[in-house]
Structures are given as structure tokens and as C-alpha cells.
Amino acid sequence: MADKIKQICAIQMTSGTNVDDNISDIEQQLLTLEQTQQQLVLLPECCLFFGGKDQEQLTLAKANKDSHGLKAKLAALAKKYNVFLVAGSIPVLSKFPDKFTNSCFVFSPDGETLGDYDKIHLFDVAVEDNEKNYFESRYAKAGEHISVVDVAGINVGLSICYDLRFPELFRQLCQQGAKIITVPSAFTRVTGAAHWQTLLQARAIENQVYIIAADQEGVHSNGRETWGHSMIISPWGEILTQLDTGKGIICAEYQEEELNKVRKAMPVNTHNRFKNKLMSYE
Q1: Does residue 133 lie within any of the structural domains?
Q2: How many domains is the chain partitioned into structurally?
Q3: Within a 10 A sphere around the Cβ of 221, how many other Cβ atoms?
Q4: Catalytic residue among 9, 46, 73, 119
Q5: Does the annotation count 45 as an active-site position?
Q6: Contact by Cβ (8 Å): 141, 94
Q7: pLDDT tens column, 75-100
Q8: What CA–CA distances, in Å, run from 206 to 67, 119, 193, 211, 237?
């Protein structure tokens, strides 16, 4: 049985369209970890394929339908480097042949799958960047269930990128016991500069959880620009560590006693009068 998590980490990537190259980039970061304590490591959204055409993700999902090759490669990394790995997201073919789910998987240091999550909120927006328009639902199917995963005795809530703008999801994860919430992302440079840090700190503060946010960063092969600024935030809303630009890994200590101290001093979950019913005022 793996030890309890003592350190939480996020890997920032500039993923491309070659799966093996992206695996190699992840390995380069995992090699820098000190193996003196148990770590939980988060990868960004679209960690194994990014920067190509949206339809290519569907093609990749179809190619891996039977072999589960992408998932197997990530599980092998978790086992090789003895980490709990929250593997950002990969495309997984859905029950509809023309749609994939943008799916996050959590692996143990034994390479076992502990849980998964399909991205619920899909990014269909107009943004003033090189892409101009994003229409994620053209090829992706939205998930239908939230996910809190027991990781060595610590409840970890899962989200993906655009989910960050929906506080109701984070509240539900918290009410189901989450003490850490992961946010693997590929935030655009425009929206990231405007809202990324503010939203992350708000989700940490209002739910009194650790937030681990791993973002894509840089200019990708299709011209898309991502924001980076991966960070780890305390339940009090403090940025414990961050990486603004470039590839790399950041880590911070997970201190459950600090989380409990924040929740005891300001028991907002207990005080929340909207938890079980909608209040009305006359």
C-alpha cells in the first residue's frame, strides 16, 4: 500500500501532436522528483495530444479504443516513477462513434486506475486570439457525473479547464469530501491573462481546499496560444508555488492540519444555508 500523500505537484507542458514526444516531456519532469516522500502529480489537459485539429483527437480516440494505449502509457509512468498521477485528460471514444470524451484518469503508484472523470462543461466560445472560435462540442461529448477519488485516504475532486468557471461543480466536489481539487487545463492566453489566477484563488477560498492547476503554455503547432502560470493554492487562497512560462514542474507540501485549521476557524460549509434547499425571503 502506498504511503499517504505528502507533496502535491503540477507539470506544465507545451504538448504537441506526437504522443511519444509528450510522454518523453512528462518523463523529463518526473525524473526531477525526489523520492523521499509520496507525491501526487497533475498533468495538463490534453497532455498527450494538443495543437492539432479537433477531429484528430477523435481519430486518436478511435485508434486507441481497443488497445487503451494512451491510458496504458500513463499508467506505466505512474508505476515507473512511484507517484499518484492525475493524468490531465486524453480523448476516449464515447458510445457515440463520432464523439469522444475529454477524460481524466487517476493512477496509483502500482499503475492501477483509481478513478476517472469526463469533462462536463465544454468550451464553445468566441475569443479574440489566433483561433477566434472554439467549438469543443463538435467532436466531444460532455460528461454527466462528478468524481471524487480516494487517493491514499485523501479525497481528490476532479475538474478540467472550463469547469473552473462553474463554482457549483466545485461546491459539489467539496460537499462530497474533496480536500484537494485538480484543474488540468489548456487555458487560452487571452482568458488566462484575464481570469485564470482569480478563478483559481476563488475556488480555493470558497471551498477551503488545495487547488492544483496544471496548464498548457506556449504557442502550439496549430498556432493556438496557451497561458501557463500553473500554480498550487492553499485552502486560505495563498499561491504556494507557480510557474509562469515554459515547461517544468512545481511542488508544494500537502498539510492536512492546515486545511483543518482553516475549516475550523471559518466553518463556511456548516454555515452554508443553500446546501440542502433554496432559501426564499419574504
Answers
A1: yes
A2: 1
A3: 13
A4: 119
A5: yes
A6: yes
A7: 999 999 999 999 999 999 999 999 99
A8: 41, 22, 21, 11, 9
Q: Would you place residue 282 in the very low, low, confident or very high pLDDT band (cuts 50, 70, 90)? A: very low
Catalytic position from the list 45, 73, 104, 217:
45
- pLDDT of amino acid 18: 97
Annotated catalytic residue 144: no
CATH number for the domain spanning 267: value is 3.60.110.10
Structural domain includes residue 280: no
Phi, psi of 158 (to 5 degrees): -110, 135
Question: Whole-model pTM above 0.85?
Answer: yes
**CA 116, 179, 76 angle in degrees (round to 5)?**
35
State pLDDT tens for residues 52-77: 988 999 999 999 999 899 999 999 99
Catalytic residue among 9, 161, 174, 251: 161
Judge whether residue 273 has pLDDT over 70: yes
Return the C-alpha cell found at 270: 456548516
Q: Is residue 282 part of a domain?
A: no
Q: Which domain holds residue 36?
A: 7-271
Is there a catalytic annotation at residue 161? yes
User: Residues in the chain, how many?
Assistant: 282
Q: Within a domain: residue 279?
A: no
